[in-house]
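Thread: Newbie trying to understand structure tokens

Hi all, I'm a second-year student working on a class project, and my supervisor (Dr. K.) asked me to get a predicted structure for one chain before our next meeting. I've only ever worked with sequences, so writing a 3D structure as a token string is new to me. If someone could post the tokens and maybe explain what I'm looking at, I'd be very grateful. Here's the chain:
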Amino acid sequence: MSKQLLHLVFGGELTHLERREFKDTAALDIVGIFPSYVEAHRAWKAAAQRTVDNAHMRYFIVHLHRLLDPDEDGDHDN
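---
Reply by user tm_fold:
Sure, no problem. This is what the structure looks like when written as tokens:
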């Protein structure tokens, strides 16, 4: 049985293209939490494609499993 590796996908409109600072944190789009990087990447790609016309809109994948267990050895992103 493989270990569950949670990933958060979220995004929002940036104040500037050069910074990762959101224009309105209350308007962040929380796409969801996913049990693998593959599923998170699929959701990230779909969200990014929906907002392709807005250059300031960005989506991110956060490796929650790394935050929950920072002492874990190895890279388990797949």
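A couple of things are worth pointing out once you decode it. DSSP finds two helices and three strands in the chain. The helical segments are 37-50, 64-68. Feel free to ask follow-ups in this thread.
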